[in-house]
Structures are given as structure tokens and as C-alpha cells.
Amino acid sequence: MRLAAFLLALLLAAPAAADSNRPPAALAYTQLPDAAQEARARALMETLRCLVCQGQSIADSDAEMAGDMRALVRERIARGEQPAAIRGYLIQRYGDYVTYDPPFSWVTAPLWMAPVLLLVIGLLLARRLFRRRGA
Amino acid sequence: MRRLLIWAPLALFALIFGLVAAGLIKPADRTIRSGMIGKPLPELAMKPLLPGRPGIATADFATGKPRLLNVFASWCIPCIAEAPQLLKLKQAGLEIDAIAIRDTPDAVRAFLARNGDPYARIGDDPTGKAQIALGSSGVPETFLINGRGEIVDQHIGDIRADDIPAILRKLEAAK
Predict the structure, then answer these.
(1) C-beta separation of A49 from A98 below 8 A
(2) Considering just the CA atoms, what is the radius of gyration of chain B in Å?
(3) Which Gene3D superfamilies does this entry report, sorted A to Z (chain A) (predicted)?
């Protein structure tokens, strides 16, 4: 009996949700009518970081703020704004951290250059080895 | 050369071990500061949330007097903890405006009746547009605005009693 009451209480307990009581923004969960525009918005949303859940993109996240950011992206795309301009708007406010496509700078240089550098080293190494065998 | 080389794997291990240990002992700071600090307030135009209390427009801020702009919500639990501190700041003579994020008039009215009402203006931000324009990524956050309408600083999280002197000092310095 006690157990049943406890389980019932658990079922009825309201979670302390830190969520609002407003419906999500109009374009948070609705695609744009124009498929080409939606594809552009989608591609951009997949490379923007959700600032609440930090490991997800705003396309993947169900956080309310991610919904607001999706609505912002779709509205601006529908208005004819370029994806790069929208990304720039968000970078100005939240820093490079908000984008999964980091712009080239001194801090991100190793990230972009390392693969090229490793490839060059590999090619040089392979050339030396093949030469020795050929001789 | 060989002799030295034999220590290389151990050195590499020590390096990686140190890196991982440092990350565990002092995790990276993941708070996202606004890039708008030091810049003029972005273009804001918010309708009033409560009848009889003005909304928020950018022009309201360049009045020669510093103001606080508090990003809050009735559904935000740390905002309850912050409320008494905001009342203290108001008693210290500061004017405080608010942006209510994804909120309803009834919920805000109940919140203010319960926790005190420090706000001169309350702007309605139903879809977080103003929040994003400010570079704010959560509630509560408080922006310190100087008399020329420029963002001087951003306080992330609820304002505690021991944050108050620093806030007053920064606003005094930014006059």
C-alpha cells in the first residue's frame, strides 16, 4: 500500500521544469514553404551551436532557446539574407563558439593547417621510402 | 640519441596525463559572455508586457543616467533568488528595466507580487529576439548600461548580495 502510494506520488509529481509557458516561436518547428530556402536554413542550423545544451546544434536541440534561434535563422533566410551574414550576426554576439564552422584565425590555424601539414609529411616520407627501394 | 629516445613514450604519456588531469581539476569555463559588451545597445523595440508600464526602446537608455537591463522570466528559478538583490539595487537609486523572456502578463504579475517589483519598464520578448540581439544566452542575466546607452558589462546568473558593490562601482566608473 505504502509502495503504491509512493509510486503514485512519483507519477503525479510535477517536474521543476525551467521552461516557459509560451508556445514556441512560429518558425521554430515549422519549415519554410520554399524548399530551397528551407534547405539553406537547414544547412546553416546544423552548423550553429545550441548555447543551452552546448554539444548539440540548434537543428538537433529541443531547448527553447534553440527553437528561438531556428526561428531567427528561418525568418532571416526567408527575408533573403545570406547565411554568412546570419552566422556573422550570431558570432558578433556569442563569439566563434556559436559556430561549428570556425573562421580562420591565429587560434584556429592549427585546426585548419594540421591535416595539410600531416599530409605533406606523409608524402615526403613515402617518397623517401619508395626511392630507397627503387635504387 | 637512442638513450634519449627511449624516454620519449614516457614523456608523451606524462604530457597527456598532465593535460587530462588539468582538465579534470580545473574544467574549462563554458559561460558565454556577450560580444556586445563595450558596444552601444542594439536596436530594441519591445512592446509593454504589463498594461500601464512602458515597454523598452533603445532610445530610452541614452539619458545621461546609468541603468540596469535585467533579462528575466517568471519561470526562471534563480530569478526568485535574485529578486531581493534587485530591490536593494533599486533602493540604492538605480533604475532597473527588464526583458521578460517568453512570458505571459499573468505569470509576471504573480511573480512580481510574490518576489517584489523593482522594474521601471518591462519589455515583452515572446520569441527571444531581444535576448539574442543582446548576446544573452540564459536567464537571469543583467546588462550594465551607461548614460550614453553603451553596454558596460554583463552579469551572468543571479546577482548575489556580494555582487552589489562591484555593480555599483562599475556603473559609477562608467559615468
Answers:
(1) yes
(2) 22
(3) Cytochrome C biogenesis protein
Shortest CA gap A62–chain B (Å): 15
Structure confidence by residue, pLDDT tens digits, B64-95 = 999 999 999 999 999 999 999 999 999 999 99
Which of A19, A20, A64, A87 to substitute to test the interface with B, most B CBs within 10 Å?
A20
Q: Domain limits of chain A? A: 23-103, 104-135
Name the residue type at position B14. A
| Torsion region of A95: left, alpha or beta (phi above 0 gives left; psi -120 to 50 gives alpha) | left
Q: Mind listing the domains of chain B with CATH numbers? A: 45-173 (3.40.30.10)
Q: How confident is the model at residue A20 (pLDDT cuts 50, 70, 90)?
A: confident
In this prediction the ipTM stands at 0.86
Question: Is a pLDDT exceeding 90 seen at residue A23?
Answer: no
What's at B100, amino acid-wise? A
Q: Are A9 and A54 in contact (CB under 8 A)?
A: no
- Give the class (CATH, top level) of A23-103: mainly alpha
> Which residues of chain A does B102 touch, with a Cβ-Cβ cutoff of 8 Å?
20-22, 64
Q: Residue written as cell 509512493?
A: A6
